[in-house]
Records
---
Amino acid sequence: MKLATAAEMRQLDNLAITKANIPSTTLMTNAAAHIAALAKEVMGENDHALIFCGSGNNGGDGIAAAVALLKSGYQVRVYLVTDRAALSADAREMARRLEALGGILETFDPENSHCIPDNPIGVIIDAIFGIGLNTEVQGAPQKAVDLMNALPHPVISVDIASGIEADTGRVLGTAVQADHTVTFTLPKIGNYVGQGILYAGEVKVVDIGVPEEFIYDMPAKTYLSTANHFTFLARPRDMHKGDAGKLLLIGGSVGYTGALTLAAKAALRTGAGLVFMGVPAEIYPIVAAQNSEAMPFPLPNTDGKLNEQALPLILERLSDIDALLIGPGMGQSPALDALVCDIIRAAPEIPIILDADGLNAVSRHIDVLDEARACLTLTPHDGEFTRLGGDLSHGDRLKSARDFAAHHTCCLVLKGPGTITAYPSGDAYVNTTGNPGMATGGSGDVLAGMIAALYGQDLPSAPFIAAWVHGRAGDLAAANLGEYSMLPSDLLDYLPEVLKQL
């Protein structure tokens, strides 16, 4: 599904109005019907709604929702947090309809302690800013946001939580903490990236009447990664292990034998045919005991870490390998930095995934990314991304990921809530699965092994598919075990269920 910017949404609405001759008030009324329908679900037996509106069309949606609720017999209290003279033309029309039904568009007075009704409130509707906000929230709107966040009632935001920048997910000063967001036509970038994902609550995308052909024809560079993006085909009956991908995983060190094992088991659970593991000779007996399906082999090491003498042995193996993963549990040293860089320079044109200490090695020699013949995929969390030279200071994770991928001609998987997979072309996929229970050491090793496995099965979209499947397995684990108790190894147990569903 396409993720839209504010400008793209304005263009779609304009096409619906000018090309399809759909009145703007019809679009607004359609939007209001969806808001009101969700409000009724949320309210339960309570019949009072509190609605905060701005002067633009987002406020018009809120006023129109009040009209719909009044017609259905619900009680509404509608506050305008800005000057009435600033109402957009459509918002003025909705205000006229509200008042024709006996409703009142009140001016919000944050100093008035009686502005909140005594009757039980079933829902609060946030319709202050929408997707047009690009400056910090101040004055009466800020106080309205603070009030909504302080009240113990469920909040529905219209299109996007007020205070969230639509194209970045940044909080502009303050933002509404929504329980639900009703967003129109297409999901907005800010609902799913950056801090926006923390404020959106449950997002519901609804159709307000924009013709499907306009949506289909709209060029897009950002997509919401969902199960609809991919299907795992049934394997042919004459398939053999070589057809399912031969992988080489490089890593491990004294005290860190589990990371590469997690990656190897994840690769096998994701369908890899053969998984070889190059590990320091000093830990080979431990790793061999941990792995019955994957095939570890010893490599030269110094003090329990790989050294440069391992290079020719690794390159010899690469002649018959479909994908290479470097980094889990590998440790750090100048010799490892040199080894990783030499592998990148000399490796054939196969997918290479750099994770964990593989990322740390190239962070000190970032130019080596531009020397690779192979397709590189980097899987950093925010701290690793910063060490690689990525800039997150402006709060626009999507732009940062895109810029890095384009600059270094690589695929970047920027992990975190709403993991972003960015390609050199500028295309980016935002993940929708996963939960805080996955924020523990080892989860990233599982993801790296899954990416390698899918690359080995000739899936160029391996990174964003793996991110979705990985997160979905985590969601199943959390549902059954709880976010506090789940382990990275538990993801391995739920991968079969996810893949069967696909």
---
Amino acid sequence: MAEGDSTKRSRLDADQVTNILREQGVANLRDEAELELVLDGMELRRPGAHEQEYLMSVKALDGSLVNGYRSFNVLGMGREVRGLLYHKLFSSNLPDFNSENEEIKAAIQQTEQALIDFEGAKTWAIDMGFDNDDVWWEIWKHPRSHLVNRVYHLERIVEWQTASGQWQERYLDATFQYMKHLATIETQLEVRLQGQKYAKRQTVTVELSAVPIRVYHPEGKSRTKPVWLVRAKVVGAVGKPWYLLTDWPVTDAESAVRIFRFYRRRWAVEDTFKFIKTSFGIEEVQMLSF
């Protein structure tokens, strides 16, 4: 069509394009010893759109609501290589839309299926929006798959082990007092310290602590999984500490720093979103149909 030899449009559709990206991503990552898989959502904002199909409300940068769509994406990262392993545009106004939880499960299942022959460990790094028992256990279904999740629901009930070895129920935030300090490190973070007006990238001191707990299966208390709750506290920061839940054992300084790095690297997905929006101009595309 571009050369004027035809007036027919390409038969490529979204599924074909994302399958090609997934295959290339898997090929690029195949030789890595282990992978970090970053699952995150991205808003596609169309504030001036009114006639495009199945528009839904999404958050603008100022916190207001505008028309647009949502997407879930999975970025695979090795030591040297990155690859986009999943992208799905969706709208809650689609006739066959079920729930965002089902969309998240589909992202995990398709990514895990694409990596079924990968023999190394995989660690899913997910933010507070995915703090959901169903998401955790969906990941744990798959061999050699682990997670690092920044928790949001501090009121959930977990099990904590007493000094005598008994497991007792506690609210998650009640286990904070039992955390053991494991490491103090210096790193570069974009953060606002006390006395500063704005956040900026700067060298900060981070204290890392952890406590072992057990979490329940969503379908009942007859099944539990041992996990660790890790606290990353920036000394002198205005914001709250990160509380990271992981099934990787965290028993010493090295393992605590490893979990902190997993979550820090999760922010690489923001670079992916910026690239998609600026280089592809994805928010400017005028779709003929959804």
